[in-house]
Design goal:
Number of domains: 1
Number of strands: 5
CATH superfamily: HIT-like
Radius of gyration: 17 Å
Bound molecules: zinc ion
Structural class: alpha+beta
Oligomer: single chain
CATH class: Alpha Beta
CATH topology: HIT family, subunit A
Largest sheet: 5 strands, antiparallel
Shape: globular
Distance between the termini: 34 Å
Number of helices: 3
Strand order of the largest sheet: 1-2-3-5-4
């Protein structure tokens, strides 16, 4: 495969890949948050989400939904899918530049809830209408 980065862990997975299709591959996150914490990546080294082609997106989401279906009722009652774009963080064991989608099983009041999300509902506040206009304008700008 072309477009690999020689200093990227995700470009050199070899035996770690558990499932793949034409343009994407899935493997277990290491370190991981919970058992069944998968990462799905494009085979091509891409760092910005908007650089993904439609074909890569299709391959990635085919794998995500395949894994999601496998996880539900086996490791959880639901699934979270998450993609973080945080170029402001330095590369580390917990932060890889190669774009990746997290897929992990969830159930009611699970470990992630207990450890990290217990107070998340406190973050929600009613949307201000002027704020909606502001973001409507943001999306309207070319
Ligand atoms: Zn890479």
């Amino acid at each position: 495969m072309t477009n690999l980065s020689s200093d990227c862990t995700f470009c050199d997975l070899k035996g770690e890949i558990l499932k793949q299709n034409q343009l994407a591959q899935a493997f277990l996150s290491n370190p991981r948050k919970v058992p069944g914490h998968f990462l799905v990546i494009p085979k091509r080294h891409i760092e910005q989400p908007w650089q993904l082609t439609n074909q890569e997106l299709l391959s990635i989401f085919e794998l995500i939904f395949f894994i999601e279906k496998k996880l539900v009722d086996k490791l959880g009652q639901g699934v979270d899918i998450r993609q973080n774009y945080r170029p402001f963080l330095p590369k580390s064991k917990l932060k890889q530049d190669h774009i990746h989608f997290h897929v992990y099983p969830r159930y009611n009041q699970d470990y992630l809830y207990q450890m990290a999300e217990k107070y998340e509902t406190d973050l929600f506040t009613d949307l201000d209408l002027s704020e909606r206009e502001e973001f409507k304008q943001l999306l309207a700008d070319k």
